[in-house]
Specification:
Helix content is about 80%, strand content about 0%.
Length: about 270
């Protein structure tokens, strides 16, 4: 694809690529590939269910037979709007879903497919997945030795640099660069996922189950909005939204961290002596 066409794909959200004609999308090869992917997804999901069912330790669930479904939903919403520290984490949790939607949809469509072709989408996502797994382990180990704010700050700076780079960079036929970008985004996603889980456990230890349910709700909302915005918004507009959301998320995270430290100091300070 010519350089002008790549710029159009970035700022107007359209791709004039012969690989995406109707014959290819409706061909028998694509249908076979679709069935293979769906079968692989179902099999992996079933294996995951069996591992959880047979290998996970039995834990007691907080079940109140007197509560109705409506009261449970109200309890979740109450925590979402009334817990002062959890409310400060809402932008960060939504951002975690938005950035996942961008890398899954827009990066593969407007960058990888435009410059390299759709056959390299899988390789890019494999690199991102491997980097995500390795980074999650490394971030968990590093978080034990350095403060949580340092991990968040480093991840935020790297993520901001990647998004600004996406805005000013015109895709080219260099496979190594795409793998580096995918791996870097996987590292940033590992920071958000691991540290968000830690924050949920720290801020809501009494209602961890409800807090995690709200976490997945907000993350799914961000993911759904990212996919939905692809129908009416160009890639550059999504990047600007992501940058704004990241800045807002970091600002509110600082306030949330301050509240958590304030509570810890109140709990562990020495009692006054008479």
């Amino acid at each position: 694809m010519a350089e002008e066409e790549r710029v159009v794909a970035l700022f107007k959200g359209t791709i004039d690529n012969h690989d995406f004609d109707n014959k290819t999308l409706c061909g028998l090869d694509s249908l076979d590939l679709l069935w293979k992917l769906m079968c692989a997804y179902i099999v992996l999901g079933f294996i995951g269910f069996c591992l959880i069912f047979f290998c996970l330790d039995r834990i007691g669930a907080k079940v109140d037979p007197e509560k109705t479904s409506l009261s449970i939903v109200c309890q979740h919403l109450t925590l979402l709007v009334s817990h002062k520290t959890f409310r400060l984490l809402i932008p960060l949790l939504i951002f975690s879903g938005l950035q996942q939607g961008f890398i899954f949809a827009d990066f593969t469509k407007s960058y990888v497919t435009c410059a390299l072709g759709k056959e390299y989408i899988g390789y890019s996502m494999i690199v991102m997945g491997v980097a995500n797994v390795v980074s999650s382990i490394l971030v968990a180990l590093v978080a034990k030795m350095v403060p949580r704010e340092v991990v968040f700050g480093f991840g935020g700076v790297i993520h901001m640099a990647i998004m600004i780079g996406f805005l000013i960079w015109i895709p080219m036929n260099n496979l190594f660069i795409y793998f580096i970008l995918a791996a870097s985004w996987g590292f940033c996603d590992a920071v958000w996922q691991t540290q968000c889980n830690t924050l949920i456990c720290v801020t809501c230890p009494e209602d961890a189950d409800i807090a995690f349910a709200n976490y997945r709700l907000l993350q799914s909302f961000g993911l759904a909005f990212s996919f939905l915005s692809g129908t009416f918004m160009c890639v550059a507009g999504k990047l600007y939204i992501l940058i704004i959301m990241l800045v807002v998320s970091v600002m509110f995270y600082v306030l949330a961290e301050y509240k958590v430290r304030q509570v810890d100091n109140d709990v562990f300070e020495d009692p006054p002596q008479n």
